């Protein structure tokens, strides 16, 4: 197998394994407990995890896209997720716990606003809404809501660091193989 084909296969393999999904299902789902800072490498400000069956018929039940739990904004107001050294935010599923409301997002890096949604996303209690922002290089994600009530979040998705390195190595190998194949012989 030549290097070009190998690099192409490596690139394709790394593309399929590029996201890490946090489903909150490894937490107890006790709504009275805050998600501890350091969970999955992030700090969680105003977040708890709740079992999907805690309030049948609520947005918590319909918002559990993974298995048993969702994260939620504990006091019904602004919530934030941060990580020292930064992260890329691909997206997550959001569902309102009790009534329709709007969400807006800001992405911060080193105390400076680098991203902000220009529109609000309307969420309801029936259908989880995937909100994909694809923001890179932030260290804090702030989530605002209009309803003054809780919302559920599931499948918080960020790139896996190992996959990014694999993807970068595959791209570099592909470029090097391509340059060699174009060189005069």
UniProtKB/TrEMBL annotation:
The keyword Acetylation does not apply. InterPro entries: Ice-binding_C. Keywords: Signal. It holds the Pfam family PEP-CTERM. Residues 1-19 form the signal peptide. It comes from the Bacteria. Residues 157-180 form the Ice-binding protein C-terminal domain. This is PEP-CTERM sorting domain-containing protein. It comes from Telluria aromaticivorans.
